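Sample pair:
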Amino acid sequence: MEPLKAAMKLCCGGAGFARKNLEKFWKGDGLIMQTLLVYKDSYSELTKAALEVLRNPDATMQWYIIPIFLIFIYIVSKELSEGHVQAVLAGAALWLVDIWNEIWNSYICAVSGHAPVWGTPPGSVEGVGLAGQSSAFNILIGYNIEISIMFFIMGIASCLLLPKDKKAKILGINNRVFYACVMTTLAVCVECFLNYANVLTWEWSFWQRSCPWILWIIGYLPFFSAAYYTYDRPTVKQSLKAVGCFAALDVVGIIVGICLNWI
């Protein structure tokens, strides 16, 4: 326990140092920070609504999440029983890389004081037309339990599509690159539809349906790249190491976020 306490103290100390310096920078004339924080301390109505239900199961919990979770357990158990261990680890890798994106999305919301890059507000916000159904549980400002389960399953499914020969080509393109691009494109199309349906909200001008290439490069291509990298490791042990690295990055991000009250 002593090494763990020491690590926590070190992380919190570093986070405190970062916060003090960030506050100093904010008080200065830094152009980049001023651009990012142009809406400082003016949370949008959508963000306020999302913060009200953030990690608040009393306000959001629904029964449907229980059978969905059981379906998730069934899928993972079945794949493991059939020997698809690396496919499950690839699913975990995609899931963990998405969590990293969700962490920095929360950072932007907290630092800007305006809004996350993407948000998952409740289905009813006064003065804003949103789809009526809310999430059963909002984990982070733009991340709910349904998204979490979906990404893990998507990682597994995308790897089960892959040919056994990782050097085989489709239309002259390496099949891993081909499937990463196809799956990324499909995922971006779905995300754009969710935004169109007002289930997923985007409030920054650089993250809109008019510039989907940003979602393509930042939002999804790294997910499938991480999944396929993990899946193609020569041994299960090496796949586990890859997952461990992604998990370690998330743990650091979460600890820093907690210390700074950014998540």
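The CA atoms of residues 186 and 216 lie 10 Å apart.
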